[in-house]
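Minutes, methods subgroup
Present: GH (chair), OT, SY

1. OT presented the first of two proteins processed in the latest run. Sequence and structure tokens recorded below as shown on screen.
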Amino acid sequence: MTYTMINGNRLFHTDEGPAQSRRGETLLLVHGGTCDSHDWSAQIGAFSARHRVIAPDLRGHGRSSGLTGGMRPRDFAADLAELLQGIDAPPVVVVGHSMGAVVASVLAVEYPSLVRAVVAVEPGYGFEAQFAPQLAAAFSVPDPVGSAVAVLGGLENPAADGPDADALRVWHRRRILGMDPMTVRDVFHGLFDEAAAALTVRPGVESYLSRRACPVLSLSAAASLKAKGIDGDGEEALSRHPYSASAVLEGVGHWLFQERPAEFNSLVMGWLDGLPAT
């Protein structure tokens, strides 16, 4: 079954891989804001060869409905917690991109029994305090979809060229254009308005992220860290677990796992191979 009613919304999700043999880990792939689970197309096959892979569309995104409740990271995390319990998933490795990395962190902090580890890909946290209200204001306009196209378009890798890079840009843009404008507004307000600061903005977010007791692998684009005003990888003091690690990739954009899928998949799979037993 690919649809489940969760908190009044109809959530689309796929569940693939060697669930019966219980080999490997169970991975939960969480896409970013105004995206959907198709983002992980280059990962699902590679990961599910060895691991169980659950890939949902968050409420209001992709094939999932979003008529009930809010669009904040805690709302998405509550949906995923109920989904995991409903499909009898063991503690999962949550792989989250952008806003999805915020959702993954909320799951790790507030539903720790459900989370074995977190992979934070280009995480949507760590922004400077003055940046958040500016971005929240950009979505308090009659055309929040246009704002999303402009903001997320600016995160594409300008150095990438060729038909594959062009196709990715078109795909990302057209997907935003197909979303409900109020959903787009609420998603970005949920990340950057005053109430969201504890989950996304420095310095307060460090205190929240330090509550993740599980191992955390962080993968970031160097250009994104520079834009956030972060020297180094910025994740060194954010996880208490000794197996936590981070890597910074040069010459990539926000969707680094789509630009360099083989490299990304190898990094994640190698880290999972050494993940200590609970």
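2. SY then presented the second protein from the same run.
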Amino acid sequence: MSSSTATTLTPDLGAPRARLTAGDLGGVDAADLIAVIDSVAARASALDRGDADLRQDISALAGLGLFDVDRTPVAVAATIIEAVATESLAVAFGAWAQRMTAAYLRHAADRSDAAERTYRAVADGSNPGVTGMAAAQRQAVGLGKVPITATPVDGGFRIDGPIAWASNVYADSTIVLAANTEDGRSLVLTFEASAPGVEIRNAPELLALNATASTMIGLDGVFVPDEQVLGEDLLDFLSGVRPQFLLLQAAFCSGVAARSVTDAVGRLEGLGAFYADEHSALAVRHEHMHSELHRLAASPGDAALADLLLLRLDGAEIAPAATRLEAILCGGMGYAHGAPANRRMREAAFLPVQSPSQSQLRWELERLGIVA
């Protein structure tokens, strides 16, 4: 990394990028990050078409330390992921999955040499990281059981069942997931996608985000040694990482929304003037969300669960609304598949259904006595 002084970007590249300064980024040099983001921007259309490999961007972001949990705190990770999302939600989403895999492994590294070794391989970008934890998140709040079983065998566990959805799924990926034992325990485990019994199923064609290598995985008799058990109490394990999970999801929601809100400004004349009030309201909502994101990310361990859930729900609502408005203001070009506004609209359509879905977020908030 270079040691150049703080760099500020022009506002027309989206609010998060305009705010990139050395003060925001800890030990990450702003100029180095901008170079990575510019590379993402140049390849965004190719990534959308599935003609470019997102692992190139994961490697570049690993070089900045994004996935090194000890080196790069949540507040800095949020700033980086938010800024990347102004150019490609696919890359920001893949980066979130990589960072969360590293976070799960780091959470267990102090008690497991295997977790420490695997963490290093994910943190430095050598191995793609797969977070097969969506079902675990639902189980933790009482919305069903993880459909994966862990059966004790000599020296470890036999793992069986489906991972219904996961991203960054490649033959050399590291997977983290939860599994239930017959005696009522809920384990968190890690293993390689190349392990015998792991079946990476054909990826479905998505509306967008095909570059994230998202698909289903079947597990049939996968052996996981005892040393690769990261935790034996799912609720306790998740309590240590869920704030980061929600904050970094909110970060990529905020980034794609920021780009649409910013790019729409120049189209609020003529017929576009009819949408000025709607745009103004979205801009105010986004600015509040951005401020809350960085307030909470500054001290994740102190953040109230309700605030985190509301933040993530805001992201699920604001990003699709902002990208849709931008597409409307673009007119016919907003309907063209290759147009950036169209790509953002398609990307953001995933956010309300990504786990935790908009429905789950509202359900959790209702349980806390909050009507959203």
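Chair's summary of item 2: The domain at 129-233 is CATH 2.40.110.10 (Butyryl-CoA Dehydrogenase, subunit A; domain 2).
Next meeting: continue with the remaining queue.
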